[in-house]
Amino acid sequence: MAGRVLEAALQLLDRQLVDKHGRLAGKVDDLELTFPEGGGPPQVTAILAGPGALSRRLGGRFGARLEAVANRLREGDDDHPARVPFAVVAEIGSAIGLGVAKAELETDRLEAWTRDHLIGRLPGAGDAPD
Amino acid sequence: MRRTWVAVLLLVAACTGPVRSSGVYESKAGQTAAAAASAVETAMLAVDGARGGKAYGRYLTQVLVEAEEDAGSAQGTFDGIQPPDQRADQLRGRLDELLDQATGTLEDLRIAARRGRFAELPELARPLPKVAERLGDFAEAHG
Amino acid sequence: MKRLLSVALGILTAIGGFVDIGDIVANTETGARFGMSLAWVVVVGVVGICLFAEMAGRVATVSGRAVFDLVRERLGARLALVNLLASFFITFLTLAAEIGGVALAIELATSVNYLLFVPVVAVAVWLVIWRVKFDLMENVFGLLGLALVVTAVALWRLHPDWGGLLGGAVHPAVPQGEGHPSWWYFAIALLGAAMTPYEVFFFSSGAVEEGWSRADLITNRLNVYIGFPLGGLLSLALMAGATLFLEPRGIEPGHLSQAALPTMLALGKLGLAVLLLGFFAATFGAALETGLSCGYSIAQYFGFQWGKFVRPADAPRFHLVAMVAVAAGALLVLTTLDPITVTEYSIVLSAAALPLTYLPILVVANDPDYMGDKVNSRFTNALGTVYLLLLGVVAVATIPLMVLTKAGS
Amino acid sequence: MRLTDLLGAEVVDQAGRSAGKVHDVRLVQDGPLVGGFGAALRVDGLIVGRRAVGARLGYERRTMGGPLLVKLAAGWLRHDGRYVAWDRVRAIEPDRIHISGSADDLPRPAAPQ
Q1: What residue numbers bound the domain in which A37 lies?
Q2: What pTM was estimated for this model as a whole?
Q3: Residue D59 lies inside a defined structural domain of this protein
């Protein structure tokens, strides 16, 4: 079966992630490629998103510094950048549609932190705009 | 990288340092006269408005305050420049006389406006057209 | 009927929203120094903003992707980051200039030093961004901005020598005593004022905020093609007023108050009051647009949730950026840096940065992956190419001209 | 491995000659089934060329419209594109990918849809 053909940099990289409720959930900052156990060409196993992945794209001193900051922000012992398993991808178009809510993703941690510690504490943050 | 910065600094210093040639001094004098003339003409338009009851006091006051500031700061900048020779001294004397007339009248206008005496403005502004004309001529002659 | 009303409302807000502090300053200063000899630049700028705003609105409507999404997708993470830093800096400068402009407009009405109003203005701008619904915000300030029509009324009441004004406009020549570099420098300033990058950030993000669908594409076109040119006429009215009153007297305007002189002299107190209201609404509306655009550009680069169509708690990083930008803009004005000077630099740098935004829009508007059958027509592409070349020349020429003319002084 | 480890890497043939840098990676959706997405994306090959400017504008797709000038410029910047099928990849080092055979017989990439 000849499947759909995609150019990774042109049609996947830097695209917007959109969750199942239409909420914006980060960008495709990089892709995780894994060699299958039985051999053969690598497969795309996850979308990497957030500063930990972006920093390596940017390169140079700025990228290195960003990566250091991203590593420090990460709690515990997981040393990989935030990843979205490819299994939850539902659609690839001008945006990448995901089949889950963004709160379930690792990529939501900084957004949640900003909400819980800063913006969410201001009066009216939870109100719909009127 | 550091060498570039030194070059830039030297360039900046060259632009703002003491004026050596009298030609440059003369053109600075011309620019100052033009700036002062602009302030005086602005005040005259404001007074026109006051005469015709066309503007609110607060707006007029604001225009006059700014006109006085502009003329004053132009004079301040010019007076800070060292005149390079005797001819420049002469030029400076003539321009300063005009600038004093301009700022003096603009001061009177600002004081009257701040006190809300807008009816007096046209009378106080009488010297302005003549001053504006002389400043304009000076600017043209030394531009 | 309802559709007609919404179209009319869109056009009116496009007119009222066209002019901001940059247009007020650039057109008044140009008219005072060069008469109508640079009026053609306003026409070029209006055609350009129509072309690119329509494209950006169409792309956003059809694909749901706003301008900075496209910048990142088409330039890649690194080049887009450079673009983001430049665009954000210029939008931030413009935001500071608009906040200063609001404070100056209030100063003209109260004769109380504008610096006192800056913190109040900043808080008010933030509150509107935080609480007020997008379309309400856009409609209120767009309609209030229509007060600037008073500049055109003033011009008409003066019974000017229309032939003379038009003659100056259609036979552009550098006036005596002015150099070519200064003339071209002001041409760039006028172009930057008419085509500021934040306008397309805001316009395309607004299409997403308002949830436009393909059925709204006609509305998009009408808003842009009718609203912006009429807004451009208000710019020209400011320029003509300065040509009539300020140029013959050798006035070099450096204050917002001087931009109001022609209307005051033509129409008196009522006209002046309406004009000051127009200045206030135009600058406040633009402060909202630039404040939001600071948030839009960063959020769209990194993929954060953005927009006023969700609760602030659901777009926390977007609101954080907008809030910090407004506060920092207010602080910049509080350093007593002259807002008019900030404006002059922001519009010139805007002009230089235009290709950064416009190339990705033009490319994506041709990409059927995003646009389906709504790709650019040949005519749009031909015109777009001409503008891209023009903007490229402008971008290269700006900094040398800035140095050569000591920023137009 | 990340996509970034491939993008921008120099491609070298058995004789040690450079074939250019990796501009893009072609994926084909015919791997094993994964979750809701269906078949997994598998790396099919590398698009390699000497110049990288304009690679992201997307003008190598036949469906792309104008404007003519941008299209021509992008086409000129990419005119030397070559395709390395994945089975020719021998070893992946940081910033360097070794391929079998000679850089001279690499085909041009087929235009994607």
Answers
A1: 8-121
A2: 0.90
A3: no
**D105 domain residue, yes or no:** no
For residue C360, the chain D residue with the least C-alpha distance is D57
Look at D35 and A85 and tell me if their CB atoms are within 8 Å.
Answer: yes
Q: Is residue D24 part of a domain?
A: yes
Q: With contact defined as beta carbons under 8 Å apart, do C267 and C148 qualify?
A: no
Q: Using a threshold of 3 CB pairs under 8 A, tell whether chains B and A touch.
A: no
Of C75, C375, C388, the CB nearest to D65: C375
Answer yes or no: do B59 and C107 touch at CB < 8 A.
no
* Cβ contacts of C308 on chain A, cutoff 8 Å: 129
Please name the helix (run of DSSP H) or strand (run of DSSP E) that holds residue C11, with its range, or none.
helix C2-18
Tokens of C263: 């209307």
Q: Is the separation of the CB atoms in C272 and B59 below 8 Å?
A: yes
Interface size A-C, in CB pairs within 8 Å, comes to 99
- Asked if the C-beta of C215 comes within 8 angstroms of chain A's C-beta atoms, the answer is no
Share of chain D above pLDDT 70, in %: 81
Contacts of A63 in chain D (CB under 8 A): none
C320 to chain A: closest CA residue: A119
ipTM exceeding cut-off 0.95 for this assembly = no
* Cβ partners under 8 Å of residue A10, min gap 6: D24, D55, D56, D58
Q: Is residue A104 within 8 Å of A87, Cβ to Cβ? A: no
C81 in reach of chain A (CB within 8 A): yes
- C62/B40 Cα distance (integer angstroms): 56
pLDDT of C97 > 70? The answer is: yes
Mean pLDDT of C189-203: 90
**CA angle, corner C42, sides to C37 and C43, nearest 5?**
100
Q: What is the pLDDT of residue B13?
A: 45
Cβ-defined contact of C111 to B58 (cutoff 8 Å): yes
A122 touches chain C (CB under 8 A): yes
The CATH topology of domain C2-404 is Amino acid/polyamine transporter I (1.20.1740)
Q: Is B20 left (phi over 0), alpha (psi -120 to 50) or beta?
A: alpha
Q: Do D24 and A9 touch (CB under 8 A)?
A: yes
Instruction: Tell me how close the Cα of A78 comes to any Cα of chain C, in angstroms.
Output: 22
Give the Cα separation of C398 and D72 in Å (integer).
27
Instruction: Tell whether B136 lies on the interface with C, counting CB pairs under 8 A.
Output: yes
pLDDT higher than threshold 70 for residue B5: no
Pairing of strands D10-12, D96-99: parallel
What is the per-residue pLDDT across B90-115, written as a single tens digit (0 to 9) for each? 889 999 999 999 999 999 999 999 99
Q: According to the model, what pLDDT value does residue C55 have? A: 93
Buried b (16+ CB within 10 A) or exposed e, B23-45: eebbebbbbbbbbbbbbbbbbbb
**Would you list which residues of chain D are within 8 Å, Cβ to Cβ, of chain C?**
56-58, 61, 63-70
Chains adjacent to D (≥3 CB pairs closer than 8 angstroms): A, C
Within-domain flag for D90? yes
Chain A, window 25-84: residues with a beta carbon less than 8 angstroms from a chain C beta carbon? 25-27, 29, 49, 54, 57-59
Burial grade of C167 (CB within 10 A; 0-12, 13-18, 19 or more): exposed
**d(CA C111, nearest CA chain B) in Å:** 5
CA of residue B45 relative to chain centroid, distance: 16
Q: Containing domain of residue D21, as a range?
A: 3-53+81-99
- C167 pLDDT band, cuts 50/70/90, is confident
CB contact under 8 A, C80 and A59: no
Cβ proximity of A7 and C73 under 8 Å: no
Domains and CATH numbers, chain B: 23-142 (1.20.120)
Count of domains observed in chain A: 1
Q: Once rounded to an integer, what is the mean pLDDT over residues D92-105?
A: 85
CB C366 within 8 A of CB D64: yes
For tokens 């797709």, what's the residue? D61
